[in-house]
Amino acid sequence: MRILIIAAVIAAFAAGGTWFRYGSLDACTWLEEDMARDSALPRVLIEARISAQFLLDGITEPDFADCLHGWWSYRLEDLPEGE
User: Fold this and answer.
1) Each residue's pLDDT tens digit, 50-83
2) How far apart are the C-alpha atoms of 34 and 63, rounded to whole Å?
3) What are phi and psi of 6, to 5 degrees?
4) Cβ neighbourhood burial of 71 (10 Å; 0-12, 13-18, 19+)
5) Radius of gyration for the chain, computed over Cα atoms and rounded to the nearest angstrom
6) How far apart are the C-alpha atoms of 18 and 16, rounded to whole Å?
7) What's the Cα-to-Cα distance from 32 to each of 13, 47, 82, rounded to whole Å?
8) Domain boundaries, position 67
């Protein structure tokens, strides 16, 4: 029972931190926000770039898992070599 309570508290803090940073719990928004933060491109071009990448991967309607995978891939690309 104690482990369940600890897991629930950790999940609540993680969700709260994500909401505070992105204003959303949608992984597609996280991807868009991070790309906007890292580039000087207008938001419309960022959205088009994300949509184009999903289309190249054969995904016409990305769901949470697709966006989460895209977000993690984008975040991993930003890491310097050797990390």
Assistant:
1) 999 999 999 999 999 999 999 999 988 866 665 5
2) 18
3) -65, -45
4) buried
5) 15
6) 5
7) 22, 7, 26
8) 24-83
Q: How many domains does the chain have?
A: 1
Of residues 78, 67, 83, the one with CA closest to residue 22: 67
Considering the entire predicted model, what is its pTM?
0.75
Classify residue 9: in a domain, yes or no: no
DSSP state of 53: H
The answer to whether residue 3 is domain-embedded is no
Would 65 be classed as within a structural domain?
yes
Give the DSSP per-residue string, 1-40. -HHHHHHHHHHHHHHHHHHHHHS-S-HHHHHHHHHHHH--
Helix axes 2-22, 27-38, angle to 10 degrees: 50
| pLDDT number for residue 82 | 55
In a domain, 72, yes or no: yes
